Hints:
By secondary structure, this protein is an alpha+beta fold. It is 23% helix and 9% strand. The mean pLDDT is 86.
Amino acid sequence: MAKWLALDKIANFIQCIKHNGGILGSLRTLYRVDELKFGNLVGQDKYGNKYYENNMYFYGRNRWVIYSENVGMNYDAAQVPAEWYGWLHYKTDLLPHRDPYRPKYKWMADHTPNLSGTNKAYMPYSTTKPKIEAWQPKD
């Protein structure tokens, strides 16, 4: 009877509002990530990104990341480390901290996000003279 009256939808809506920190928190989350979801927090990486899962959603939409607050609105998919990328994209169902086959060597570098388009982007330095010179107007 509750399904016929759509009471389950109302209960999910209320649970979603509670999960996102009330009405103001939900509005803030909606502004920041364009959708409201609720689910179980399954982990957090060292950069502050939080990873959630709710199998009530469709396959492919039931795992998601909420990026760290200190990146503000400048979040990018390149900020997800490789171990969590594999879990988000169903390469493995094991969480990174529970995967016994995950290699951990001292020579492995930490994850760095893609810095293209920022002022910290890599710019190669060339010692060869360019074939084309930029036009400079006369004063």
